[in-house]
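We emphasize that the prediction below concerns an isolated chain of 134 residues; any contacts that depend on oligomerization or on bound cofactors are therefore not represented. The input was used exactly as deposited, without trimming of termini.
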Amino acid sequence: MQEYKKLLEAGMKKIMKTGSTGRFEVPGARVMISGSRTIFNNFYEIANTLRRNPQHLLKFLLKELATSVDMREKNVIFVGNFSQAHIDRKIELYVKSYVLCPECGKPDTKLVKEDRNTFLVCEACGARHIVARV
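Result of the prediction step, given as a token string:
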């Protein structure tokens, strides 16, 4: 029994060290309005933070904002004037729908396409949920 307790304590110490204690934070959108266009400067940084394909995030934003896009180097330029708060709300909606696990609430997920369905698979708890197509 003593052996078991020692092994259990050693295992718990390892779990506590490797477990993430930080809160998941998505950086705020850095946008600049230039005439009738909105320049989204940190789009790729946000996609990397979310661990999602930039094309998937972009497709979602285009649908939600009902606009078109002009890609230039590391910037995404939307046709139309969109405030930072408006884009942040759309990214928050994306995070709730395609990043956070509905079971445990952790961002340790990935999108897996099987046949014609896309699943949100949680790497933390193992849950699988079907998500809507973008």
